Every structure is written in structure tokens, then in C-alpha cells.
Model the fold of this input.
Amino acid sequence: MKFICAECGCEYPLDGLDYRCPCGGLFQLSKAPGETVGAGVSLGEVPTPVLRRKLGHTEVYLKLDYLQPTGSFKDRGAFVLINKLLELGIREVVEDSSGNAGAAIAGYCAAAGIRCNIYLPESTSAGKIKQVLAYGANLVKVPGSRDDTARAIRQAAATTYYASHVYNPLFFEGTKSLAYEIKEQVGIPDYIFVPAGNGTMLLGAYIGFRELGKLPRIIAVQSRNCAPVAAVFHGRTPEPPAPTVAEGIAIGQPMRLQEMVTAVRESHGDFITVDDDSVLRAQAMLGAMGIYIEPTAGAAVAGMLQYFPAGDNGLNIVVPLTGSGLKK
Ligand SMILES: [Zn+2]
Done:
């Protein structure tokens, strides 16, 4: 197993400090056939359940991915990444995240006995910081935006392994398991609605379904207040980002923007945007059905309601619910 630069094809070892190529290219994972990652560290991952529900006029499958060990789908990525780093003998990592990815990496590092330093924006909600601290991670609060945090960590990553949920392809190797589970449970859907910020779920689903031989139409949902990928997808200039209740997808400059655009194009899908009111209404709608999700997960539901206002004509539609409402 090794990393390969998507631009120039240079090869890099999995355990080095390089997390992207000096040419500017991002890493992809290269595996020999049959090569897998061990599963020595487990927090009790389960195939998450699906519920058939009618939302608005449309029947959908809700995939309850917030029922992972740390409360979000990011555990899929952390499980594979941290297990591989343990195999490689990595003893300490740094990571930056608006919350769920940081909690997932911190949780799996705690289980693996790997020292973990999490960089978070100062504004991150108290519940999420509490969770990272409970896992014994060293918390570094960075003033300013999510992108300021990204800049701060570049410095740290010069000397300590960067267990990034954005740069490190091992994370996407984990999130792709979502596609395999969905296929087992309901078949390959016609449509999948994913909240999109850095694209960890979008690209994981894309990689997984591509390996399975068929792509659903991927409808990527961004917040209207922070929609750089939707803008590029539709040939517009991105507007400056503004705050949004969907903090998990509030990413002003996603590193894998072009990959996300390409994946959605290839799937014959679309990028759409939703406003904060519709996100909160979607969150409340699911709450009233006994399903407690964080606002970012509500973005995918709001996107589905907006995309299929009059019903679906019997399509197989999956909406993964990314994170638990207990996080906030
Ligand atoms: Zn390169």
C-alpha cells in the first residue's frame, strides 16, 4: 500500500510526514489486489440501520450513520486510518476538524494508544470539545475560521504525522464502507443525498459505489451560506462564506473541490444549496419522528425535500444521517 500523487504520479510511503506532493497534487491510495487494513482496534462498529420513512411527499431510506461509536459517520474513516497507523508504528498524530472528524480520530487514537492533538476553531460547539477532551486528546483551540485552523495545523504537521480526514486517503478508504453497506441493505440507490463540505462522505460514497460497479446519482448539498463547490459545479464564482448552522459543512476552501465536482458529474448528479431555515426545519421534522440529528445532517434532508417537492415516483433514495443531535 502506498500514496500516489494524483497530478505527477510520484509515490510516497504511508508513514511519512508528507501529506501532499510538493507539485501541489493530492494523494490517492494505491493498493495491491486483496490488500486490506487490519481491524485490531475496534470500538464496536456496526452496520448502521436503515429506516424507510416518508418525508414530505417522498419515501426515502434514512441511513442512521450517527449510530457509530463516536456519534458520526466519520468513525468509518477513523477506523481504517488509525488501524493502519497502528500497524505502521505511528505513536502521535495531529488532526484538525470542526468536530465530528476530530472526535472520531481522538476516540480511535485513545483505543489504539496513539497520542492525539486536535486543532479546532475556537467557535466549535462546547459539546464537541467536551467529547474530544473525554478521549484524552490534547486540544489546541485556534482563533478565527475553520480555514485559519487549517493553516495552523500545516505548521504542526511539519513534525508530527497528520492524520487528516481531508488529505489522508486512508480516511476515504474507510468512509467508502458506507456504499458497501447501502448496497447490502437496499441495493444501489437511484439517488443519494450527502451533505458536502470537505467531501469525506461524498468521495467515500463515490469510491465505494465505483468499486461496486454502479454509481447512484449523487446529490451533494451545501449550505447557501458556504457553497464554493456548488458554485464551481454550476460555473459561478464562489461567494465569500458566511456562518451557517450546518457547521460540519462550513468549509470555505475545500482541498478536494475538483474531485468532488468530477465525482458528482460522473454520477450524473447535482450540487444544490439549502438555507439555514430549511436545515433547522428538516432537523425538527426528524426530531418529531424520534430521530435526533445534528443540523449538518438536516442539510441532506432539506436538500432531498427541495429536490423532490412533489414526490419521487418510486425511486430508491438514500439519505445518510451523518451525526447525532447529542453532539450539539
Ligand atoms: Zn505530484
